[in-house]
Amino acid sequence: MEIQSPRKHHYGLIRSSFRLDGQVHHTNHGRISGLPLAKLQLVQAAFRGDVVPLDSPDAFQILASRAYGASHALLQLARELELHQLLYSRKEPWVGAALAMIIGRVVHAGSKLAGVAGKIDVDQHCYEVMDRLLERQPAIQRALAKKHLQNGQLVLYDITSRYFEGEYAASEIAAFGYNRDGKRGHEQMVLGLICNEAGCPVGVEVFPGNPQDASTVPAKIAQIQQEYGLSELIFVGDCGMITQANSDQLKGVGGLQTISALTHRQIVQLLERKVITLELFDERAITEALDPEASGKRYCLCRNPETAKRETQTRQHLLELTRQHLEAIAQGCQQKAPGGSPDKKIGTRPRLAAKAPAAEKIGARVGRVLQRYKMGKFVVWSVAAGKLEWRFDQEKIQREQRFDGCYVIVADVPPEKMATAQVVASHKKLSLVEQAFRNLKTVRLEVRPVFHKKDARMRAHVFLCLLAYYVQWQAQQRLQPLLAGDGAGKKRQRTFENVIAHLTTIRSNRVKTNGAEFQLRTHAESDQQKILTLLSEKQPEP
């Protein structure tokens, strides 16, 4: 049998050869067509008698192997979600590279180049793609908003920070500010995330590292209404986002209603004005109060016993640390250095007594302790004659403890549209945005570390992570029947992470047998097939 390939279409000729009068002649007996080259090569080897027995170690060789199942399933999901068309309506090479980077980040939780097969060109497969993604970000986010945000529904908004390591002298984004990661001495950027009421992400914005939370709100609401086309919405923001200044600025905005939480200071102001009293905070029921000076505002008073217990324990721990350090400072002021007894060695001088520390030095040490543990409002202290005197103000501590677990949700949504319990439940949905931040920051998608030094690349990097979380969120929705029925706590066996890891064991192998090379994929086990089926089944839009 001979294999021929005119015009790249392979076929096999079955022929016999013989010698007659010194010349080689051929007789054709048939033709085999319609088979791929690898199978034709196996048939050829069989005719030639070159087939290696199946029990031979050389019969079957795996030349290369790569993870296939998770990447393929998520790529099919992304295409079903029409993400490739959202990236760009026409087929261009950068779109495929972008999809590879997005899926690779979900599967590998690491390098953006992990999802690009073959030889890697950093400029072509990474930087050029990121630049195109950033150009397309406004259009892509408008498309996501059109798909997942509906007029009159809740829009969830929250911000977080992510710190940098290294030098970013040329960056306008990297700046020092309030660090939510507890990383002092690091510049950072601030991320603002928009989600629908189910927690599906639709937009992200990168701010410099030092804005106040509330300062980002008016422009974000304007963007939602103007760019995303929502004439009516209920904007849900975290504690302190709807300040009095914001309320005044947004007062004339039509179709806008807000739900937020009050800061501790705002709650105290309501208590001082006697709009509310501490007795109204109840663990078993939500109490609603109205402010006669703020028409239309509803204050929903709640108390969480678990939060109260945690806040009390935290304060007691910080007070104990403060006490230990202040006592150490006070004892250090009272202790005298060793006296002037002469040393036994001849020719040595007696050591002089140490001078008492100056009041300024004592005050500086006390200030550092109070700044570190944030307990200064509970401490009464003074320095006299080189000695520190201090005590805890127990009355303030007890008064503060009465606030533990208390919080107030404020809304201007009318009661006929949303009951008190619904207002509180709507604000609790911000936990979905916090879950998104956990995924973006630490769990799988890892916004940090940021190796890019240009601001545009930083923004593109964050947007790429958002698109990866969008695919992950959609996958998690489809896997809910599997994850929800898996128990909770210690009994829970499956998480999104180990589901993805389980799918990666489905591999695509480059195989060689009897001279023929071909691709052979691992057969999916029953539980793997169940996961693949769930990911391919379209679920109702949440």
Please write out the topology.
Layout: E1 2-4, E2 11-20, E3 23-33, H1 37-48, E4 61-67, H2 69-80, H3 83-87, H4 93-108, H5 122-148, E5 154-163, E6 188-196, E7 201-208, H6 217-226, E8 233-236, H7 244-250, E9 256-261, H8 264-272, E10 287-290, E11 298-303, H9 305-334, H10 359-373, E12 379-384, E13 387-392, H11 394-401, E14 406-411, H12 420-428, H13 430-443, H14 455-478, H15 480-484, H16 496-503, E15 507-513, E16 516-521, H17 526-536
Parallel strand pairs: 5-8, 8-9
Antiparallel strand pairs: 1-2, 2-3, 4-15, 5-6, 6-7, 9-14, 10-11, 11-14, 12-13, 15-16
Helix pairs in contact: 2-4, 4-5, 4-14, 5-14, 9-10
Describe the structure.
This protein has 542 residues and is of the alpha+beta class. Among the domains are: 2-37, no CATH class; 150-276 and 284-295 and 411-450; 307-335 and 356-401. It is built from 17 helices and 16 strands. An eight-stranded mixed beta sheet has the order 7-6-5-8-9-14-11-10. Helix 2 crosses helix 4 (93-108), helix 5 packs across helix 14 and helix 9 (305-334) runs antiparallel to helix 10.
State the main characteristics:
elongated; alpha+beta; 17 helices; 41% helix; three-stranded antiparallel β-sheet
User: Spatial order of the strands in the main sheet?
Assistant: 7-6-5-8-9-14-11-10
Largest sheet: 8 strands, mixed
Distance between the termini: 60 Å
Number of E-type strands = 16
Estimate percent helicity.
40-55%
Low-confidence stretches: 336-353
Rg from Cα? 34 Å
The backbone outline, from C-alpha atoms, is: elongated
Report the β-strand fraction as a percent range.
Answer: 15-25%
Supply the helix-strand structural class: alpha+beta
How many DSSP H or I helices?
Answer: 17
pLDDT average, as an integer? 83
